[in-house]
Design a protein that fits this description.
Number of helices: 20
CATH topology of the largest domain: TIM Barrel
Low-confidence stretches: 1-22
CATH class of the largest domain: Alpha Beta
Oligomer: single chain
CATH architecture of the largest domain: Alpha-Beta Barrel
CATH superfamily of the largest domain: Glycosidases
Strand content: 15-25%
Length: 840
């Protein structure tokens, strides 16, 4: 018995020794009464330490850090030697040494600034943040918190994005999870604003807009207590059953080369637009669209409010009253009283439906192209004053602002500044779809908030890759020089323009550093510094030739004339009956020259085998494919142009037999080559598709270029009339020809506690039998759990982790079985999984 007792004692001593030798977890201290943002800051520090080092830190609620070694303290202004004069958005990172203790102070002038400090620390660890998600470098590092001493404040108090509603490439195809995911990326980039424009009318021409649902127009008694509306006029966000902006209706099941696999319904759009009937829909459908999109915004904007992101919606001024509203309310003439009643109805519905910080009134788009008469300006000015009166009478539930395609009336940029209240921010997007510099008229507008809105991409080239870092940096510098306090980027897509997004976010904090550069007078600022950092973080290495190439590709946009888009190095599509039209408006010689700009692609391909790390390789392949796809768009347009020229030559020939011979010997081979180029283009796009924006690009090719512009089949009838037999191989196939790919467009990385985690998974595969599961666990917590993916339709699946099962921050990956192959997403799993942190 004594021997057994001795053995037990010896065993316990050994266990104690082993336990005591186990490395102590890094501790992150937060105040006992920490706010939601301070707690989130600690969780984010914990997340990114875990992703970069593999170590799992412990969050401790205590005012007094104790112990030895490294620790992190989320602190407040005036405590732990944090300066007491920090401004509201100024953040502070400082390493302090106290004997054997090395502590990193994470602080700021407010809990919002503390959150920015946490994300700055993550960037110091190598993280980079974009709208589409985080970039986590491959490999693990040792945690180093030594020698950090950063104190920084923004140059602009409003910093953010303006995703533009109209096309499928943009927010028209976002669901609530997409809104929340993208909004949660904004504070990571130290941004604090998101705003949306709403078209209120149906264009008289077929290739224009139709009324949109985010802002509903009607009277107060037509709104229920919960913000839902009793009646609605025809509205939509883009869906594949409609013909706005030169996209012809096409069933997604008719999309070519397997693209249909990633669309779960023939009439595709945001969830509230799926399977809707043809325009103008039924009234019940229109009411549902307005109400469901309103509920979606409420969910998204509540998330924004928690994260310190200001929100903005608005429509055009003078108020455009839809015909159906006029007819229903018996409006014959638009009196001031009627306009005020409508504004009250609009604002009341917003107040009841979703939280809002700003409502902006957009001056007419044609002011930038056609100017404006004095009468039009006077009517616009009066309309703004009426809207302001209504908001005042309602107790200012949100703030009124202005925006537009020009800054104020074209004849006098300062006219509105002299007559409108000074608490109304003035803003405008740059003219010429961004080719025109920031309006110098901002300088003359005084004593009011001023928001500059550069273009992060333009819609004429909406399906091509666009790099505008140098131009964005210059726009930020000009905005700073002109006294603007807001810097906002207009855009549609996300991942495709991630360098531009990053450049804008960083410029809002650093633009003043470029004032004395020799190039400060140029249209574009230098970009070598940006692309050096970007390529290292994106691909894991520095290559001078690659950086020089990116610098050469970037910006270089030239105006055709003031206020009008010109050309740029990377332009590959144009506005031809709508956005992103293949350049059939260019000559063969010009298209050939543009294709020759991509002669560097073999050099990039030669780099690929030397790229180390699964994440680095995936990102390098993504950008290489982007550039190949750009080239393919031009090659397709070139063959089309040659086919068109051959048709013109045939038409000039009078001899019928020679016509037929030319059609078969010259035109038919070109027509077959055109189909081959089309196939190549679609395959390249499918090989890189990873976001809703790229799904919208697929829709553009199928609905706008293929159907509306008839890029492939437009000359077929002429050839068939000449007796040409177009073989089956002249037409696109339906089968997917690539390798199995898992596409998860939405990266919702912050989840409100008590909510389910929901995900949609889209799979491209040549295999008929496809299934999958979501595999997840709390950070670093041993055993994984799994949930089977549930098929919605085709190769689109959904999965939910119930809130009751989510007790802590977690990581997950997707495992797909396709035939005999297993494919995992992200490609970095198991080393780096997708992660989600919880927020109160």
């Amino acid at each position: 018995m004594k021997r057994i007792a001795t053995q037990i004692l010896f065993f316990l001593v050994i266990v104690n020794l082993v336990t005591s030798c186990k490395p102590k977890a890094l501790q992150i201290y937060i105040p006992k009464d920490a706010t939601s943002k301070e707690m989130l800051a600690a969780s984010e520090i914990r997340r990114y330490i875990y992703l970069r080092t593999g170590g799992l830190a412990e969050i401790v609620s205590s005012e007094q850090p104790t112990g030895s070694g490294k620790l992190i303290v989320v602190s407040r202004m005036g405590e732990n030697q944090v300066p007491s004069d920090l401004q509201a958005e100024e953040f502070y990172l400082k390493t302090e040494k106290d004997g054997s203790m090395e502590k990193l102070i994470v602080s700021g002038g407010s809990d919002q600034a503390v959150l920015y400090a946490a994300y700055e620390f993550a960037e110091q660890l190598g993280m980079r943040f974009y709208l589409h998600g985080d970039v986590v470098p491959d490999g693990k590092i040792a945690l180093n918190i030594s020698d950090l001493n950063i104190r920084q404040k923004p140059l602009f108090s409003i910093r953010g994005v303006q995703p533009f509603h109209d096309f499928p490439e943009g927010p028209d195809w976002w669901n609530v999870n997409d809104y929340r995911a993208i909004i949660s990326q904004l504070p990571k980039m130290k941004m604090n604003f998101i705003g949306f424009h709403t078209y209120p009318f149906q264009a008289k021409f077929s290739d224009g807009p139709k009324a949109e649902p985010l802002v509903w127009i009607g009277k107060e008694d037509e709104v229920n207590a919960d913000g839902t509306v009793k009646t609605a006029y025809p509205v939509l966000h883009f869906n594949t059953n409609d013909s706005t902006w030169g996209y012809y209706p096409v069933k997604t099941s008719d999309f070519t080369y397997g693209a249909s696999q990633i669309f779960e319904t023939d009439t595709y759009g945001a969830d509230y637009m799926k399977n809707v009937s043809s325009w103008p829909h039924t009234e019940a459908e229109n009411i549902k669209i307005v109400n469901e999109s309103g509920k979606m915004l409420n969910d998204a904007f509540l998330m924004a409010k928690k994260l310190g992101v200001k929100t903005c919606v608005g429509t055009e001024t003078p108020l455009i009253i839809p015909k159906e509203v006029k007819d229903r309310l018996g409006i014959k003439a638009e009196t001031d009283q009627q306009v005020k009643e409508l504004y009250k109805g609009m604002f009341s519905r917003i107040q009841k439906t979703y939280p809002l910080d700003y409502y902006w009134l957009w001056t007419p788009e044609n002011w930038t192209w056609q100017g404006a008469t004095d009468a039009e300006v006077a009517k616009t000015e009066k309309d703004m004053q009426l809207a302001y009166e209504v908001l005042n009478e309602m107790g200012k539930p949100f703030q009124l602002a202005t925006c537009g395609w020009v800054l104020g009336p074209p004849k006098d940029r300062t006219q509105f500044d002299r007559v409108l209240p000074k608490d109304m921010p003035f803003s405008c997007i740059n003219r010429g779809v961004g080719y025109t510099p920031v309006d110098k008229g901002f300088q003359a507008i005084t004593d009011r908030p001023k928001w500059s809105i550069p273009w992060m991409e333009d819609d004429p080239d909406l399906i091509g890759t666009q790099l505008w870092v140098g131009r964005i940096k210059k726009d930020a510098l000009d905005s700073y020089r002109y006294g603007c306090n807001g810097l906002i980027g207009i855009h549609w897509r996300t991942r495709d323009l991630s360098p531009n997004v990053s450049a804008l976010a960083k410029a809002a904090w650093t633009a003043n550093q470029w004032e004395k550069l020799p190039e400060a007078a140029n249209r574009d600022l230098p970009t070598t510094d940006f692309y050096t950092d970007w390529s290292k973080s994106e691909f894991g290495f520095y290559n001078k030739k690659l950086v020089d190439l990116l610098v050469w590709l970037d910006s270089h946009g030239q105006e055709m004339k003031e206020g009008y888009k010109g050309d740029a190095t990377m332009n590959v599509t144009d506005w031809i009956g709508g956005p992103g039209g293949l350049m059939t408006n260019k000559a063969v010689e010009e298209l050939t020259e543009r294709i020759n700009r991509y002669k560097f692609i073999p050099q990039m391909e030669a780099i690929l085998p030397n790229v180390m790390g699964a994440g680095n390789k995936e990102r390098f392949e993504y950008w290489l494919t982007n550039l190949k796809y750009n080239r393919s768009l031009l090659e397709t347009a070139l063959v089309y142009k040659k086919l068109l020229m051959s048709i013109e030559d045939i038409k000039k020939e009078n001899d019928q037999a020679k016509k037929q011979q030319m059609a078969n010997d010259i035109a038919l081979p070109l027509r077959l080559e055109l189909k081959g180029r089309w196939e190549q283009t679609i395959e390249l796009l499918l090989a890189k598709a990873s976001t809703t924006g790229e799904m919208g690009m697929i829709a553009n090719l199928e609905m706008h270029n293929y159907q509306h512009n008839q890029i492939l089949t437009g000359q077929d009838k002429f050839l068939q009339d000449l007796g040409v037999n177009l073989p089956e191989k002249a037409f696109p196939g339906k089968e997917y020809l690539g390798k199995t790919r898992v596409i998860v467009p939405t990266d919702e990385s912050i989840l409100t506690k008590g909510m389910d985690f929901y995900l949609r998974v889209r799979i491209l595969s040549p295999e008929k039998q496809v299934s999958g599961k979501l595999v997840w666990r709390s950070f670093g917590n041993g055993k994984f759990n799994s949930i089977e993916l549930k098929r919605m339709d085709r190769n689109v699946f959904e999965v939910t982790i119930p809130a009751a099962q989510i007790n802590d921050d977690f990581e997950y990956y997707i495992e797909v079985s396709a035939g005999g192959e297993v494919v995992k997403y992200p490609v970095t799993t198991p080393d780096i999984n997708r992660t989600v942190v919880l927020m109160k």
